[in-house]
Write a structure and sequence with these properties.
By secondary structure, the chain is of the alpha/beta class. The chain has helices at 12-27, 49-60, 93-103, 118-121, 125-133, 147-161, 183-194, 212-225, 235-239, 259-266, 276-279, 301-304, 311-330, and strands spanning 38-43, 64-68, 77-78, 91-92, 106-110, 138-140, 168-173, 198-202, 228-232, 244-248, 286-288. Helix 2 crosses helix 13 (311-330) and helix 6 crosses helix 7. It is globular and about 55 Å long. Bound molecules: phosphoric acid mono(formamide)ester.
């Protein structure tokens, strides 16, 4: 049994197999390939794309999805080992995972960090607790990485650029009213370096460096794939000659859990918005984003409504890549 919790655990060739399968599924979307199969989707946080694309995807292949929102329509779940459960949560992940494994063939989990202590959140303990007890494959629907988004991101790059090797990918920080998860930024540099791209991470200040694990993994993967990985605080250097601009906002890890201080640090960097002037420095780059995106905060209307913007293509690709992934994990191969 294999989980899909991080692309780091899968080889480039395995990931490419899923991307190729997604390409085929786009032109033949409806089948009975997963007839009789059921998936459980545990959402601890809101979603539009992830929920809709998984539900629609399994429906198109003859299966069924059960969406559970612990603490809302389902009992609240305790994830800590050895907890004395005298608080709000009614059941432990040990029973939840084992019971869902008796009913379903795959469990998806979305569990964002708690934004209190990065040393705790960086261990992805909620996801680890689920994989410890699950007896069916587990899919990470975004915790501190977003591997399903990574697949859609790379499918979209390959749709528009062909082979990604050697192409310049800019992963740029943008301003946002509150400190957000680093997951998509971690995932952006992981997937770009895995597929041989020349990846530049653009940050407004050294405080916005990603966690060292992701920086080191990106460096290692770039070396293995023939790509490159660098970090800059220089806007022009970041955008110059880029083939692809990928934008995301995230909170400064040194001020994790201290949002008021972090807001003061972030305030001078509103100009990191993706706009037409910055895009004009690129080599006719495409622009994408995982969505949701606040217009005229992270990117201007002009960029979002330009032919360069392929964020909606990337959102569509969530459907195709997750269908390919479900076939891989539940259907005996894609
Ligand atoms: N990109 C993404 O995961 O979108 P949702 O948060 O709407 O699922």
């Amino acid at each position: 049994m294999r989980h899909f919790v991080s692309t780091v655990d899968w080889t480039r060739s395995e990931l490419q197999g899923i991307l190729d399968s997604a390409h085929r599924l786009r032109s033949a979307p409806v089948s009975r390939a997963l007839e009789g199969k059921t998936i459980a989707l545990l959402f601890l946080n809101p979603s539009l794309r992830t929920r809709t694309s998984f539900e629609t995807g399994i429906f198109q292949m003859g299966g069924h999805a059960v969406v559970l929102e612990p603490g809302k329509g389902a009992w609240g779940i305790e994830f800590k080992e050895g907890a004395v459960m005298d608080g709000e949560e009614e059941e432990h992940i040990a029973e939840v995972a084992r019971v869902l494994s008796r009913y379903t063939d795959l469990i998806g989990l979305r569990a964002f960090p708690l934004f209190q202590d990065w040393e705790v959140d960086r261990e992805d303990r909620v996801l680890s607790a689920l994989t410890r007890y699950a007896e069916v494959p587990v899919v990470n629907m975004e915790t501190i990485v977003h591997p399903c988004q990574e697949l859609a991101f790379m499918r979209t790059i390959q749709d528009h650029l062909g082979a990604p090797d050697g192409r310049k990918l800019l992963v740029t920080w943008t301003w946002h009213p509150r400190p957000l998860n680093t997951a998509v930024a971690n995932s952006g540099i992981l997937m770009g370096t895995r597929f041989g791209m020349q990846v530049t991470l653009l940050i407004p200040d050294e405080a916005y460096h990603l966690d060292p694990y992701y920086l080191e993994t990106a460096k290692r993967q770039a070396k293995e794939s023939g790509g490159d990985f660098s970090v800059t605080t220089d806007l022009e250097e970041g955008y110059r000659d880029a083939d692809w601009v990928y934008a995301k906002s995230w909170g400064a890890l040194p001020l994790y859990g201290r949002p008021d201080e972090e807001a003061r640090l972030r305030e001078p960097f509103r100009h990191f918005i993706v706009d037409e002037e910055k895009m004009s420095l690129t080599r006719g780059a495409h622009f994408s984003h995982c969505l949701p995106l606040r217009r005229n905060v992270k990117a201007t209307d002009g960029v979002m409504d330009s032919p360069a913007c392929v964020a909606v293509d990337e959102a569509e690709n969530r459907l195709h890549v997750q269908k390919a992934l479900m076939l891989e994990l539940m259907g005996g191969g894609s």
